[in-house]
Write a structure and sequence with these properties.
The complex is a heterotrimer of chains A (about 220), B (about 250) and C (about 230). Chain B is α/β, with parallel strands linked by helices. Chain B is built from 7 helices and 10 strands. A 6-stranded mixed beta sheet of chain B has the order 6-7-8-3-9-10, with helices on both faces. In chain B, strands 2-1-4-5 form a 4-stranded antiparallel beta sheet, with helices on one face. In chain B, helix 2 packs across helix 3. The chains are: A mainly alpha (about 220), B alpha/beta (about 250), C mainly alpha (about 230).
Chain lengths: ~220, ~250, ~230
């Protein structure tokens, strides 16, 4: 039987409490934005998901570099876990972005730089799983997965800048010319900071759980052999 | 120097082994292939590496050739660690299961390519000598994809010897050779077996090598189970028995 | 012996050998060239292009055909090393293995650039637009430099998988997207008659990509190739 991990349990509870607390703040504490109305409240979890996704891809690259330096499979488990979790957060960011865009611009998808970059990142990291799946040994998966995670993270800022630059030259013409720009009140700021913190804790908890799962799977596979 | 045995008295300093590996471990697909393997060969040895299929002979040779990175342990040549020391590979000649040739190039072009990779002087002379020594002059302008298995093996041997390496790692060198070519290789190996050169030859059927080898190393369960001088094999009946079985 | 001159000699020899293999076998460049032309024809009808093509469309079409054709060359470049495990022969050479990366990148760049040099007059003919422009050639070199260095790195990854070369486009295209955006935009600007100074942002992005991918190859290529 695997050992109980009280720290992990505490982190799980903290993450759940944090997300719940942030939700309560957003629903009952923050004001409605004058132009956009209630839909603007998507903003808090949208930006927090995007942040958590981005952070997890950076963690994945860092863990990949540590694997290459130390050649201990636990760093690969961390890298893999971060990418899995990052893909989920990226998906959450895209979906919430679409929910936000629909009433404002009257369309589900806009080629907005951050949204587009996130979508491309999802494709990049989905290919990570195809790469791993096509490799035969855990060692090769770890080694080449690490290389890919590092190279991928290098291209993310390049992608973002290139799309932003592209948009300044070819601006999007919206059907109904709304805008997602708004000024944040102090209450909005509070809810925003709490959301960011809560999602960061949630990210840590998810990655930890997923890493532990990989460790247990590996121990299991060893026993079967 | 990575050779970290006590060497306080320089005058009586032991000469480091020509090939030394210590504590080598390598897992493949999470299964251990080599487990804490150690082996030292003095300069001028011709050691036959025996062991059943999948015992790890190829992996050991590939680690010493620095084609495979060990999970743990250390490999050195004449006392200098191979890790992160690309220039040391100049001293190693390696013959593997595959020929390492470009099929669209002919024998001359392939060997010239390797001679240039090693930065040799007199590239043309060396290449011609290599091709002549393996009796391939008549075929040297044909693309190697038209070669028979035996011709390819002969050319591959010429490639491994091209830069006159001090350390020779040969993995089943007799594969694909006919009787005549095998005898020629016997002669060649006898000639190469001299001070200043160390040979480690993996062979599934080691009999013909025992006629002129100096040592036999038996790889079993990921370790060197026994290593014995050829003229003292009677002292290790297990190994003698294994060799008789392998014949 | 001088370490750095050994290194350069190794880069040169890998490059030279690739050219020699191509000259003897002719299995890469002709395929790339025909494929690039086929892409042009395909897109011409798929997108209903007209002879008096806008600069933006011409630049886009040029880069799509180069990007697709280059993938074939990149796969050929690594698969020829796998044939008799000739790659191991390069790994045995007494030089740091990043030299292999630079040599292969150089040959991949050369082949794709040759395809571009054929495409430019063809485009000029088909779409009545003078594309034989030295500034465009500069943009193409910068763009292909970044694209082929990243491609060489990823081709060495994908060739180790069970699916082998099938995987390369899936790995390469999303990661190469910023390079392609910058290359298309810079080419469009050049064709629209903008001076290079106005395209500085795009050119900087291309130069930064070149540096980043070459550095990644320098640091990671040995790790990709070793077992």
């Amino acid at each position: 039987m695997p050992k109980k991990q009280p720290l992990l349990t505490a982190l799980n509870i903290l993450a759940a409490a944090g997300v719940l607390g942030a939700l309560i703040l957003i629903l009952f504490f923050t004001p409605e934005e004058a132009q956009m109305g209630a839909v603007q409240k998507v903003f808090y979890f949208h930006v927090s998901s995007a942040w958590a996704g981005m952070l997890s891809f950076v963690i994945a690259a860092g863990a990949g570099a540590l694997y290459l330096a130390k050649r201990e499979l636990r760093w690969d488990w961390l890298s893999l876990a971060s990418i899995e979790v990052g893909i989920m957060f990226g998906l959450a960011a895209i979906l919430s972005g679409m929910i936000w865009a629909q009433p404002i611009w009257n369309t589900w998808w806009v080629w907005e730089p951050r949204l587009t970059t996130t979508a491309i990142m999802e494709l990049i990291y989905l290919a990570y799983f195809i790469l791993r799946g096509a490799l035969n040994t855990p060692e090769a998966q770890a080694r080449l997965g690490a290389v890919y995670a590092i190279v991928s993270v290098i291209t993310v800022p390049l992608t973002f800048f290139s799309i932003r630059l592209y948009r300044t030259i070819h601006p999007v013409v919206f059907v109904s010319g709304g805008s997602t720009a708004f000024t944040m009140s102090p209450r909005m700021w509070t809810a925003f900071i709490v959301s960011l913190a809560a999602f960061t804790v949630l990210l840590a908890a998810l990655i930890w759980n997923r890493t532990r799962l990989a460790a247990l799977q590996s121990a299991n596979a060893q026993e079967e052999n | 120097m990575q050779y970290n045995d006590a060497m306080t008295d320089t005058e009586n300093a032991p000469v480091p082994p020509a090939i030394e590996v210590r504590g080598l471990s390598k897992r493949y697909n999470l299964q251990p292939v080599l487990k804490d393997l150690s082996l030292a060969l003095a300069d001028g040895s011709l050691c036959v590496l025996v062991g059943s299929n999948g015992a790890g002979k190829t992996t050991l040779l590939r680690i010493i050739a620095s084609l495979v990175r060990p999970d743990a342990g250390f490999a050195a040549i004449n006392g200098a660690a191979l890790k992160d020391n690309a220039a040391l590979r100049r001293q190693i000649g390696y013959l593997g299961h595959q020929t390492l040739f470009y099929s669209d190039l002919n024998a001359l072009e392939n060997l010239t390519h390797y001679a240039r990779l090693y930065g040799l002087d007199n590239v043309a002379d060396r290449v011609h000598a290599g091709i002549a020594s393996m009796d391939l002059v008549n075929h040297q302008h044909k693309p190697v994809r038209t070669y028979s298995r035996g011709m390819l093996q002969r050319l591959a041997i010429a490639r491994a010897l091209l830069h006159d390496p001090a350390i020779l790692l040969l993995d089943e060198p007799y594969t694909g050779l006919d009787k005549e070519a095998a005898q020629a290789l016997d002669l060649r190996l006898r000639g190469l077996h001299q001070p200043g050169r160390t040979l480690l030859i993996a062979a599934h059927h080691p009999q013909r090598l025992l006629a002129f080898a100096s040592q036999v190393a038996w790889l079993r369960d990921g370790r060197i189970a026994q290593i014995q001088a050829v003229d003292r094999l009677s002292e290790t009946p297990d190994l003698l028995h294994y060799l008789a079985e392998a014949a | 012996m001088n370490g750095f001159s050994n290194y350069l000699r190794m880069v040169w020899q890998v490059f030279r050998k690739d050219l020699q293999v191509e000259w003897r076998g002719r299995q890469g460049l002709p395929v790339m060239l025909i494929f690039a032309l086929l892409v042009v024809f395909l897109f011409n009808f798929a997108l209903q292009l007209t002879p008096g093509l806008q600069a933006g469309l011409a630049a886009g079409l040029l880069w799509v055909s180069l990007a697709f054709a280059s993938t074939l060359g990149l796969n050929r470049s690594v698969s020829l090393e796998g044939e008799n495990n000739a790659l191991a022969g390069l790994l045995l050479a007494p030089v740091d293995r990043s030299a292999i990366f630079f040599g292969k990148t150089l040959s991949n760049l050369t082949f794709t650039f040759l395809v571009a040099l054929v495409l430019l007059p063809v485009f000029s003919l088909f779409y009545q637009q003078n594309m034989l422009n030295p500034r465009l050639v500069l943009v193409i070199l910068l763009g292909l430099g970044a694209y082929t260095s990243l491609g060489t790195l990823l081709a060495a990854l994908s060739i180790q998988t069970r699916t082998r070369d099938v995987l390369l486009p899936v790995l390469l295209y999303p990661l190469a997207l910023p390079v392609l955006i910058a290359a298309v935009e810079a080419s469009r600007g050049v064709l629209a008659g903008q001076p290079l100074a106005e395209l500085q942002s795009w050119l900087s992005l291309l130069i930064a990509s070149n540096i980043l991918f070459l550095a990644a190859g320098l640091l990671l290529f040995d790790t990709i190739l070793e077992e």
